[in-house]
Specification:
The chain is an alpha/beta fold. The protein has two domains: about 120 residues, Enolase-like, N-terminal domain (Enolase-like, domain 1, 2-Layer Sandwich), CATH 3.30.390.10; about 240 residues, Enolase-like C-terminal domain (TIM Barrel), CATH 3.20.20. It has 13 helices and eleven strands. Strand 6, helix 8 and strand 7 form a beta-alpha-beta unit. The longest helix is centred in the first third of the chain and has 21 residues.
């Protein structure tokens, strides 16, 4: 079996929002083989940059578009192809956009392999460790602190929908300590004591502020505080992790490759890591990242905030791991959230692993074409 085509697509609602919610655009790649099998993958990054990295002509051996590196190759050679893509895109940067584009390609390759052998990807990765995963509703705080009723309504809505864990983040949170306390207090009151509460700071604090603010939130029993600091402040993460003992300090959605996560774990000493399979290198790289977490006996709680194809990929990743207790489930309404005819659903707080070969995505190509702009 050989790869015959790599198609890079930009899907868009046609309007941009300042809030970084990643539900107005999607990057989708479709890899076709001479056997007729097609694999799909996504990257949670700028779709226009992703498309350029896939389609760019070769400049030299360290500056080459990904499509050119894949045509005519055997999709089963995932390790070989990953290393080839990595070393031939050095000039794009060894972390960041190029790795996100490689992630989409890698997911599509594993989709083809799974379809070819008739197995779900998590089985190819050595799983499953579980048949269903506890999901947390991933929500945004309002942009205006005066709209605190939105927090109450959202908390009640998702508890009533069966979620046993809810995360709030971004928006107006992290700017004013009194506002932060009121927002979290409102969420906890509506959720009750039996629902896990996670808080995403959105990288707004320094370590001193983070320690002070975290202690203010302690009475509301957060399960974790996510990305309190900028991603490169490893020393600050270490200070916070050593100072806070009532909840996890977690980070990693801004990290790329095994090298980035090695630095985060060894220097940042976070309590859990958040690799995004659609950013950090696909299944091929993320399973190595997960092995590093296993070595340090810390959980993996992947970031996942995009389409249902990303959710499927994350489910396969989680299903293959012994130390992955949660699925992030974005609850923002957007037609780009559902690009398949079989999107994963939350039932009584859990999502079952897909049982179809490969990713198990039945893509809705009519919808994809409706939102395709490039």
């Amino acid at each position: 079996m050989k790869i015959t085509d790599v198609e890079a697509m930009v899907l868009s609602l046609g309007s941009a929002r300042n809030v970084a919610d990643a539900t107005q655009e999607v990057f989708l790649v479709v890899i076709t083989t001479d056997s007729g099998l097609k694999g799909v993958g996504v990257a949670d990054s700028s779709p226009w940059i992703m498309k350029t990295i896939v389609e760019a002509p070769r400049s030299h051996d360290k500056c080459c578009g990904l499509r050119e590196l894949l045509i005519g190759e055997d999709p089963f050679k995932v390790e070989v192809l990953w290393e080839r893509m990595y070393y031939n895109t050095y000039y794009y940067g060894r972390r960041g956009a190029a790795i996100a584009a490689i992630s989409a390609i890698d997911i599509a390759l594993w989709d083809i392999i799974g379809q070819s052998v008739g197995k779900p990807i998590y089985q190819l990765l050595g799983g499953p460790f579980r048949q269903k995963v506890k999901a947390y509703a991933s929500c945004l705080f309002p942009e205006d602190p005066a709209h605190i009723d939105e927090v109450k309504l959202s908390a009640r809505r998702w508890v009533d929908a069966g979620f046993k864990a809810i995360k709030f983040g971004w928006g107006c949170f992290g700017v004013d300590p009194d506002t932060d306390v009121e927002l979290v207090k409102a969420a906890r009151k509506e959720m009750g004591e039996n629902t896990d509460l996670m808080i995403d700071v959105g990288m707004r604090w320094d370590s001193k502020t983070g320690i002070q603010r975290a202690k203010l939130l302690a009475p509301f029993k957060p399960f974790w505080i996510e990305e309190p600091l900028p991603p490169d402040d490893y020393r600050g993460y270490q200070r916070m992790a050593e100072s806070i003992d009532f909840c996890w300090i977690v980070a990693g959605e801004e990290e790329y490759t095994l090298f980035g996560f090695h630095q985060l774990i060894e220097e940042g000493m976070v309590d859990a890591i958040q690799p995004d399979v659609t950013r950090a290198g696909g299944f091929t790289e993320c399973r190595k990242i997960a092995a590093l977490a296993k070595l340090r006996n810390i959980p993996v709680v992947p970031h996942c905030w995009s389409s249902d194809i990303a959710v499927l990929a994350t489910l396969h990743f989680i299903g293959s791991l012994p130390n992955a207790p949660f699925l992030e489930y974005c609850v923002i309404d957007s037609p780009l959230r559902e690009l398949t005819q079989n999107p994963p659903r939350v039932i009584d707080g859990y999502v079952e692993l897909p049982n179809r070969p490969g990713l198990g995505a039945e893509c809705d190509y009519k919808k994809i074409e409706r939102f395709r702009v490039a």
